[in-house]
Amino acid sequence: MTPTPTRTLNYLHGESVPPIGGDWLEQLDPRTGRRIGDVAASGPEDVAQAVESSARAWPAWRALRPTERGRVLVELARVARRHAALLGDIESRETGKPGREMPALVDLVAQFFEYYGGIAGTMDGELIDVGPAYHSYALREPFGVVGAILPWNAPLHQAARAIAPALAAGNTVVAKPSEFTSGSLVALARLAVEEAGLPPGVLNVVLGTGPVVGAALAEHPQMRKISFTGSVRAGQALGHIAAERILPLTLELGGKSANIVFDDADLAAAAAGSARAFTWNSGQWCAAGTRLLVQRSIHDDFVGRLVEAVAQIRVGPEHDATAGPITTRAQYEKILSYFDVAAQEGARAAIGGRLPDEPRLRQGWFIEPTVYVGCHNDMRIAREEIFGPVLCVIPFDDEADALRIANDSPFGLAAGIWSRDIGRVHRVAAQLDAGRIVVNEYGGGFVQNPCGGYKASGYGREQGRDALAHYTQQKSVIVRL
Ligand code: NAD
After folding, report:
1. How many Å apart are CA 349 and CA 302, to the nearest integer?
2. Tens-digit pLDDT profile for residues 43-70
3. Residues 208/46, Cβ–Cβ less than 8 Å
4. What local confidence, expressed as pLDDT, does residue 50 receive?
5. I need a surface site. Which of 82, 83, 132, 134 has the fewest CB within 10 A?
């Protein structure tokens, strides 16, 4: 049965509001390429309404005791879990993610609100001893209205990651989800107001394209800070506007993360983990382990094991598929274009590297997980973020060689190490230029672990305790006694 097309509206000051200009963007189903609805294509006037509403809501939200703000966020976690089916259905429909993944995803979203709600009351200032003639201290104060500009690959997860600490710290938020995946955040914002008791205006959601709505958010004089998650290209565009306005940014950008397998690793676990590292979410994962560095002595054996693990992945539109489609047509075409690049560069596909055979998978934007061998680190497929299930395998000789190759990248978001040698693990972890290192697993870490990039992968950190502080600015008070 074809679902009824939906219209996704802005959510401003507790109301669903159509865009002032009356423009809409068509939303397509990644599983079939057919239209599933329309999304508000807002303009600067809508953005102004959103920011002004959040500015009006700020004094009262800020005046709450931190533990009172925290209580609302913890309640939102409960509400999100209660409506997991609704939120999961919208997100799965818009992104194409397999339905079976949705309960865990909504639970993770709830964990962000629970965690930051729980620690909202722990944000202490500092008493600073400058001698007996003074009483001096430093306070942490919220910025005011904070923007959250978000990508399509994990819409609710990325939203919760930015919004929960910003609200806990006493800011109000205007969020702009990706124009391809706006519905789940609008639904969450509505639940926040209608069921969790978040005052209207504390979280507004304004929809539309990046160059129009994202830019208008950054240009609005009442916008005080922006957390941006997305591509390097868009992060740079935002950075130009921010430089003009001296607007603080957190930038969570792309990656080309090295996943290093040493010859003393548990090879069965490493093969399964390395397959997941580049295919989870069909490779649409900023921290995906898409450069697999394998010690030369085990290279052929390991590639065999890896290909076996990748062959188990069931790509499809089904609820219980292991991997769904690519979320946007443009991204799908970009990934396919790298198949030509790989062929020109002389890499060989050990598995994948072509469109799926099944006709039903050719209707939507499905891509076979692809492992390229015969790669070296100077190839474009090893340097550029493809953002799909495409892996290049690069051999290395020893620890120093592995580190040289791993760090020779414009990015530095994450890295994996597979080894049973505890000394080697810590030595290598200490020398990798990456914001997150995962050992003997390749996963996303936990809400409590700071997350962010070195080099072109961005600056500032989300997640973890310190993210709360990142949504505040310090004020020093020095009193002569
Ligand atoms: P994107 O940069 O195209 O879009 C991200 C957001 O920015 C969207 O809301 C978009 O509308 C907006 N945007 C686009 N151009 C803009 C502009 N000129 N000014 C202001 N806003 C603009 O990214 P995407 O394709 O949605 O997401 C994929 C990218 O995001 C990948 O590079 C991926 O690595 C990155 N990502 C990073 C993290 C992280 O934590 N580091 C997490 C998820 C995704």
Report:
1. 15
2. 999 999 999 999 999 999 999 999 999 9
3. yes
4. 98
5. 132
Q: How far is ligand 1, taken at its centre, from the CA of residue 150, in Å? A: 6
pLDDT of residue 443 exceeding 90: no
* Residue 209 CA, closest ligand 1 atom number: 11
Helix/strand/coil for 413: coil
Active site residue 375: no
Distance of CA 346 from the midpoint of ligand 1 (Å): 30
Q: Residue 330 class from Cβ within 10 Å (0-12 exposed, 13-18 middle, 19+ buried)?
A: exposed
Amino acid 417: pLDDT:
98
Q: Report the DSSP pairing between strands 390-396 and 291-295.
A: parallel
What pairs with residue 436 in β-bridges? 414
Q: Which two tokens stand for residue 420?
A: 């049973």
Give the integer Cα–Cα distance in Å for 174 and 110.
19
In DSSP terms, which residues pair with 259 in a beta bridge? 292, 416
CA of 464 to the centre of ligand 1 (A): 21
CA separation for the pair 147, 238 (Å, rounded):
12
Instruction: List Cβ neighbours of 103 (8 Å cut-off, separation of 6 or more).
Output: 84, 88
pLDDT in tens, 23-37: 999 999 999 999 999
Between the two ends of the chain, the Cα-to-Cα distance in Å is: 76
Residues 6+ apart with CB under 8 A from 50: 10, 12, 174, 204, 205, 206
In Å, what is the CA distance from 221 to each residue of 145, 209, 340, 454?
10, 20, 45, 30
Instruction: Record the tokens describing residue 242, joined without a space.
Output: 């921010």
Mutate to test the pocket of ligand 1, among 25, 42, 153 (most ligand atoms within 8 A of CB): 153
Pairwise CA distance, residues 190 & 69, whole Å: 17
Side chain identity at residue 245, one-letter code: R
Longest dimension (CA), the chain: 80
